[in-house]
Amino acid sequence: MRWLQRVWESITEPRHMKVAYLAIYLLTIMIGYVTLTYPPQSIAGEIGPVLTVIWSVLFIVGGAAGTITVLPGWWWAERLLAIAPIGMGLAIYLLVAIILHAQNMDTGSSRLTQVGIIVLAASPFIIRMLIIRDYSYEPRRRG
Fold this sequence. Notes:
Blueprint lengths: L1 H9 L4 H23 L3 H7 L1 H21 L5 H29 L8 H21 L11
Helix pairs in contact: 2-4, 3-4, 4-5, 5-6
């Protein structure tokens, strides 16, 4: 158990926030994997399998980069290699949901809840970007 305590203490404050973001990045990898292996048919059929692969790979790459960069405080890399690809993947998903909503308005089929959930899913990444925007590396990082 001492090794676990050493690992915990090697993470700079606020530790609980970094671990929470680590969990978010791991979840993003899982979402990307599920999307890649079992694409949503209501969307994959509309945009084609190639765009669905691109969308899911953006989640996987961004999530993997985030898991590597969040704990050491490599903010420039987290912004560029984690948040940006995840943001692009969410933007693709959002655009598709908006287009599908507009195309199906005459039938009463709504995608507005899906649009809202996508925006909600983007929120942790937007907040993280605001937190880490000023520096390339975490200024509190011990030498």
